[in-house]
Amino acid sequence: MINYPANLFFDLETLLNVAQPSSILLLGDTDPQFLQPYLEQKAALQQNCSITSIVTAEIDKFDALDTQFDVGIALGLFENLSKTQGQTILCKLRDVLTTQYCIGLTIGAGNPEQNWQLNDLFAFALDRVGSYRADSSDQSKQYGLFKYNIMAYKKTPGWLNTDNWANPDMWNKYRW
After folding, report:
1. Residue 7 CA: distances (Å) to CA of 3, 12, 34, 37, 161
2. CATH topology for 6-170?
3. pTM for this structure?
4. Mean pLDDT across the chain, nearest whole number?
5. 36-44 and 6-19 helices cross at what angle (nearest 10)?
6. What mean pLDDT do residues 156-165 have?
7. 3-state DSSP call for residue 23?
8. How far out from the chain centre does Cα 31 lie?
9. Termini Cα distance of the chain
10. How far apart are CA 102 and CA 155, in angstroms?
11. DSSP for 98-159?
């Protein structure tokens, strides 16, 4: 189990409070206890929130999932898988299972086949939420929290509207 810095969990809780999911997919070898404050908040508001958890040892169950979740969270997962497996999981999270998800992982350390660089993560349209250093004696480890939200993926450009849709240079010059 990976001991992520405490401020990574704080930022993750903040993202959950903004998203207000009613179903969460939790992937990896992290204790789901960090979700308890969010679950208590939902219970106080008399709202339901379900958590589906899949640990790394049972990642084969991930392939069978076909339920849509509001939010996906992956912590302690990508450090234990090959990069190819991790890329497959990111694709399925993005394309099939969720509209938004967060991942936490160690950046640029460890086995080269599992070594994730920032460019690898940005290629999946992930936004960096934060960078963190280890709380323990190993200050050389760098952790990252990244998120993906389809609604924030691409902003609509100003020129793409009904006023200028066909040909902005010829607008109102000719009657068609």
Report:
1. 12, 9, 12, 15, 41
2. Rossmann fold (3.40.50)
3. 0.80
4. 83
5. 30
6. 68
7. strand
8. 17
9. 66
10. 20
11. BSEEEEEEE-S-S-TTT---HHHHHTTTPEEEEEEE-SSS-TT-EEEEEEEEGGGSSPPPTT
153-162's contacts with Cβ under 8 Å and 24+ in sequence apart are 153/125
CB 124 within 8 A of CB 113: no
Tokens matching residue 20: 């207000």
Q: Locate tokens 């020129």: which residue? A: 159
Give Cβ neighbours of residue 79 (< 8 Å, ≥ 6 apart): 2, 105, 106, 110, 114
pLDDT per residue as tens digits for the range 65-89: 888 999 999 998 888 888 888 899 9
Tell me: pLDDT of 171 over 80: no
- The candidate with the shortest Cα–Cα distance to 81, out of 144, 9, 146, 28, is 28
**The pLDDT of residue 40 is above 60:** yes
Token couple for 64? 């069978």
Q: Which range among 63-67, 108-112, 125-129, 138-142 shows the weakest confidence by mean pLDDT? A: 108-112
User: What is the residue type of 11?
Assistant: D
- Residue 41's nearest CA partner among 69, 75, 11, 14 is 14
For the stretch 167-173, contacts whose Cβ atoms lie closer than 8 Å and that sit 24 or more positions apart, written own/partner, are none
